[in-house]
Automatic annotation (TrEMBL), chain A:
Catalytic reactions on record: Cleavage of a beta-linked Asp residue from the N-terminus of a polypeptide
EC top class named in words: hydrolase
Listed name of the protein: beta-aspartyl-peptidase
Source species of the chain: Brassica carinata
InterPro entries: Ntn_hydrolases_N, Peptidase_T2
UniProtKB/TrEMBL annotation, chain B:
Any matching Pfam family: Asparaginase_2
Name assigned to this protein: beta-aspartyl-peptidase
Key words of the record: Autocatalytic cleavage, Hydrolase, Protease
GO molecular function: asparaginase activity; beta-aspartyl-peptidase activity
């Protein structure tokens, strides 16, 4: 028996150090709130699969993070959400892409995992599946926030694909709507789970799938660790980032901390990605090579952390 | 400088040993033809990315394999094709899902890789992208063969998801339309590439995505090896099979042969999957834990092999 542990993120990217209070404080409060939810659930012996799902649902419901409500917009001004979830012990997993009306993508991913013989459903069929199973849906007006309409306009004016963050310029304050939310958890028995959810890139091509629904890239869990990644999706896919952490531990004998740090470092240039990870031994790691990563973690021995920038 | 090598597959599954000549011979002929194309291309100095693409195009065009023309049908009697391609040196990759009219899905995957800032496009948007770039498209009826209409009817009668193969029963001849085609190649400079393409499962849910377009599951290439997998997509995703081969080589120091065999063995129970793989050193491995796998390979030293069942 080891202690439980939980870590969650609200996205890694170029989060400016002078982020105004009105953007910083709501996110810190949300991170703490979601952490508390997850910790309570673990303390009441909920399975990590349930814990990670409920924490990611809470992050999706928060308009300040790029998932569910508050998702960034495609080039066509729509939302296209995706998510995945994985159980470390069984390696069961579920994934969804191209959602436009489903209020909690992570829960639909879990439904795919539990109610179908498949792992991954996408676009129209995923939406139809949601309706068949009475999953909560909403109008696009529910998901689309004024801030994201403004971000899309800004990206189009800049006439480029805007990644998860905006490089600050004198006129434009640094963005804080950084891609992806996720949660990893382990209980006292060593059961592990990971879940990730996102709206993707600002101004992404409609139909573009990123790392979040791809098992091994944005999400992975086995008997050794659970990982959820965030950052520039294309780099995370090429690096099969989440799986990399597990492979380094299993085949090279690295610790969670070493494996997570190495995987992030190797994934690409600075500014590429971050991840949260927990091990079967109740350890936590939250490395990132970006300016910042909205994150929080807690372990059974009483340690908690809510942070945005690197600790000094 | 090492020798070039190439391996390709037309699917792994329960291919009965008493497969009738009229089903066996056209496939063997096709495998030899595709192998010859790939070998000629390598001999004339073509890059492995070009080699794997042209070989997979050829396999897609063949109605006897489950990719492109001859794809198995969804529960709604439609085709939904997916593919991916990866360059080992740069780790650039491309993937597509949900195609209904694109004649060569693997080429569209390459177009996504080379013409967009993204890796993966799916469904309506992927089809629109194809048209925007003048990729060859045709009415869906082109892809649908009478054999696959019959297979779908049979699967529905059994009222179950029919996997890539049919367990033989006294009345029903064993199936030979086994999921997925793929090709891996390495040139004498050690450049590696991998490509995979499929129609998916007979009677699959519309919108279901399998392992083939998921980088790290059905396709993977880095500086050490290139891998293409075939079999039960859900197992291949959970086991991140293609990436597993590379991780075992890189982090555990296994040879290509050992790594590929171990990855297949660990992926699930017998009947789960097979892979073709080549290493930067010009080696080839083609392990499978199914009854058979349509496959072919050749190396610069003159070795060639075309086979369906295990060698004794």
């Amino acid at each position: 028996m080891v202690g439980w542990a939980i870590a969650l993120h609200g996205g890694g990217g170029d989060i400016p150090l002078d982020l105004p209070d009105e953007k910083r404080i709501p996110r810190e409060i949300a991170l703490r709130h979601c952490l508390d939810l997850g910790v309570s659930a673990l303390k009441s012996d909920k399975h990590p699969l349930d814990v990670t799902e409920l924490v990611v649902r809470a992050l999706e419901n928060h308009p300040y993070f790029n998932a569910g409500k508050g998702s960034v917009l495609t080039a066509q001004g729509t939302v296209e959400m995706e998510a995945s979830i994985m159980d470390g012990k069984t390696k069961s997993c579920g994934a969804v892409s191209g959602l436009t009306t489903v209020v909690n993508p992570v829960s639909l991913a879990r439904l795919v995992m539990e109610k179908t013989p498949h792992i991954y459903l996408a676009f129209n069929a995923a939406e139809a599946f949601a309706r068949e199973h009475g999953v909560e849906t909403g109008e696009s007006s529910y998901f689309i926030t004024p801030e994201n309409i403004a971000r899309l306009k800004q990206a189009k004016e800049l006439n480029r694909v805007q990644l998860d963050y905006t490089v600050p310029t004198p006129e434009i304050p640094g963005d804080s709507q950084i891609g992806t939310v996720g949660c990893v958890a382990v209980d006292r028995s060593g059961n592990l789970a990971a879940a990730t959810s996102t709206g993707g890139y600002v101004n992404k091509m409609a139909g573009r799938i990123g790392d979040s629904p791809l098992i091994g890239a944005g999400t992975y869990a086995n008997h050794i660790c659970a990982v959820s990644a965030t950052g520039i999706g294309e780099y995370i896919i090429r690096a099969t980032l989440a799986k990399e952490v597990a492979a380094l531990m299993e085949y090279k004998g690295l610790s969670l901390t070493e494996a997570a740090a190495y995987a992030v470092e190797q994934s690409g240039p600075r500014g590429t990605c971050g991840l949260v990870a927990v091990s079967a031994n109740g350890e936590v790691a939250m490395p990132f090579n970006t300016n910042g990563m909205f994150r929080a973690c807690a372990t059974e021995d009483g340690y908690t952390e809510v942070a945005i920038w690197p600790k000094n």
